[in-house]
Amino acid sequence: MKKLKPGDNLSPRPELFEAFIKLAQYIVRLKSKQDMLEHVGKFIAVHFPADWVAFVKPDDKGNVIITHCIPQSSSLTEAILSGDIRNIIANVLESGFLASDIIHAPGPYMAAFLPVYEENNPEKVMLIGHKGESPVSKELLDIYLAIAGLVGATSERLKSESELNRHRAHLEEIVEERTAELSRAKAELERSNKDLEQFAYAASHDLREPLRIIAGFVQLLSRRYKGKLDADADEYIGFIVDGANRMSNLINDLLAYSRVAAAAPVKKISGNAALENALANLRAAIEENSASVTHSLLPEVYFNENRLAQIFQNLIGNAIKFHGDEPPRIHVCAEAAGGHWCFAVSDNGIGIAREQADRIFEIFQRLHGMDKYPGTGIGLALCKRIIESRGGRIWVEPGPGRGSVFYFTVPKGAPE
Ligand code: ADP
User: Fold this and answer.
1) Atom 3 of ligand 1: nearest residue by CA position
2) pLDDT at position 89
């Protein structure tokens, strides 16, 4: 057969071919299998020289049943289900070959039995009946076979579509369930966090008073009786004073940490002013350690002024505390990064191993013993909490050469 070119004139097209094209265009728009069989049957009965169309298939028990018959007629369905015809249908279903035979219902019909394949199996048979006993032309049979192919392919498509829809609906159900579970868990977490915060706040607040009494009296004891009791007693009193001081630091830090849960007023503040506040609080440590703290011009940000100062104080305080052999040199700067300001606090201190870089932001996580570097392990967790509550993030990277650089971001826009 010669290959056609796009410009070749195909008209006049034979009427049967025309009807087949119409059916093909029509069938792709159908949405359900039931609908499709019904409509295809009617379409054939109207547009083709057929007098009736029926679809038959085996039921669960293997009996042949008629799923659609157009037009509906009890004498026709009876004739289709009669012994001989049922055998032909069973044969076509088994072999997948086309057959034709005469059906007496009540006048004789010449019927074509066309296998409809789904997923490579003859799933059903399309019967097309024509009045009279003369055989159906080869051309018409070819077109019927093509229609049976179209019906099979469309059935497969509709089946996959409906399976897909079922899976999609199931998936949506799962997503909905999970979302509900998640929001329940989130609410539960929020509630228990709140409880915990209230507990931490109440506990640290209530502990302050008895601790103040212990510290006060033990200092009194130390002043009055130092050197008057034996050497052991002096040492023990020293331990108590030391322990009371540490506990007081811990309680103050815990209290500061639990206070972050409460919202603090945010306004446009100067980064430089917050840094100056922090440096004023750190004056003694800076002088003691001959530290030099430099900074570039810092931007204005939407933040709570005390909290930004608290962050600088913790980061610079650590940079001084964890210094190396040389006097601490600390530099603070900031630059724009998309919708954020990115601040950097760099030092020339002992540095932090990369594998510890995440751990140090967790509460009570310290990399050194108390004897070497005092501290509570709360400072960085507090910074992280403040920064995240403002929509930013904090991390640390090794400094160029030595030391560390702590980065934190602050959204440029005002919080909602
Ligand atoms: P603290 O300073 O009270 O121990 P932090 O939460 O502020 O607690 O810091 C946690 C740990 O991170 C510190 O114990 C220290 O090991 C490490 N760290 C923090 N800042 C620095 C720094 N600038 N250089 C080296 N190590 C640091």
Assistant:
1) 375
2) 93
